[in-house]
Recover the amino acids of this structure.
């Protein structure tokens, strides 16, 4: 019997060893278990971290920190809506009070129509922002609507002045693109700035293509002819887009760095608020206002008294009650 037991034990050990070997071989043949990064990827990641351009993973943050960040973003959207309302009122008053540069008998005036449609959309957006019901898809749609309304207004100039489409390529109204792009910088998210810049580039290219294919234009290489006639200088139209792209990229980099600082500041603020519940307010204010960091041996001497108390049958209570009931 002992021999049989030993033999069976040996057989079982060998079978277990074989299964382990097979499992180890199968695991070693799977190259996806160990992610490998190239040296250049590691260096690029390190450079982006030094420059503060790495993306922040909000999913790893605690829920209370993410809630505070969402509150900041929702407040920024209310500010964006208020700025848009003020701008619409300002441009409506400016259009009404200033003398018109077109004949009074024109059959179509695009500015009142576009301002009215844009005002209705902006009021709806502001109402959703105040109610904290502004979804992300509506935010992206609002960026595209802002740029589209501006581009349609510029396009309609040749109808209003009854001139070839090449006329609107010289309209200074294109400069309002920078207002719409920088307006998106009020929210700490580079996506909306890049979306506004990309929409502006696409919209202007569509206007140039329309003037080129449907206006029967004359292409010129002289800036004087371009500035004093309806001729089109393609280099000048492309040159207008370079500042748009650069402004959008620079603002996106600034917002990416600012968002990292926002996330860090909100996380530290939440941690400080939690710790302040256990510290004296004077001590917390001294820690925040000190010029030197907290270090071992650095402190303030204070006279204090310590009182030790004990309740009757407290060991029994500690054994029967949960920590929450005991502390409450």
């Amino acid at each position: 019997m002992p021999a049989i037991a030993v033999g069976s034990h040996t057989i079982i050990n060998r079978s277990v060893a074989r299964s382990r070997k097979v499992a180890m071989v199968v695991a070693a043949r799977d190259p996806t278990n160990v992610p490998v990064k190239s040296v250049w990827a590691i260096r690029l990641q390190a450079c982006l971290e030094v420059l503060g351009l790495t993306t922040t993973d909000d999913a790893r943050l605690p829920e209370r920190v993410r809630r505070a960040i969402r509150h900041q973003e929702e407040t920024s959207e209310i500010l964006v809506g208020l700025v848009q309302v003020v701008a619409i009122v300002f441009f409506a008053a400016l259009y009404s009070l200033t003398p018109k540069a077109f004949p009074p008998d024109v059959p179509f005036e695009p500015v009142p129509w576009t301002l009215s449609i844009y005002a209705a959309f902006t009021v709806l957006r502001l109402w959703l922002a105040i109610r904290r019901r502004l979804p992300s898809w509506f935010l992206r749609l609002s960026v595209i609507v802002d740029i589209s309304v501006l581009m349609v207004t510029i396009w309609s100039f040749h109808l209003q002045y009854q001139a070839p489409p090449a006329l609107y390529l010289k309209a200074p109204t294109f400069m309002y693109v920078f207002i719409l792009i920088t307006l998106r910088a009020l929210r700490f998210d580079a996506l909306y700035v890049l979306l506004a810049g990309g929409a502006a580039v696409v919209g202007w290219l569509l206007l140039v293509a329309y003037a080129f294919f449907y206006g029967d234009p004359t292409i010129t290489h002289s800036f004087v002819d371009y500035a004093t006639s309806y001729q089109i200088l393609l280099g000048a139209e492309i040159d207008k887009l370079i500042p748009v792209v650069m402004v959008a990229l620079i603002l996106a980099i600034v917002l990416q760095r600012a968002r990292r600082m926002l996330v860090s500041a909100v996380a530290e603020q939440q941690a400080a608020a939690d710790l302040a519940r256990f510290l004296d307010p004077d001590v917390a204010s001294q820690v925040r206002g000190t010029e030197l960091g907290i270090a071992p041996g650095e402190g303030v001497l204070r006279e204090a008294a310590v009182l030790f108390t004990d309740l009757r049958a407290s060991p029994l209570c500690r054994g029967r009650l949960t920590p929450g009931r005991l502390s409450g």
Notes: The first helix runs from residue 2 to 28. Residues 74-275 form one domain. Residues 1-32 have pLDDT under 50 and may be disordered. The chain has 13 helices and no strands.
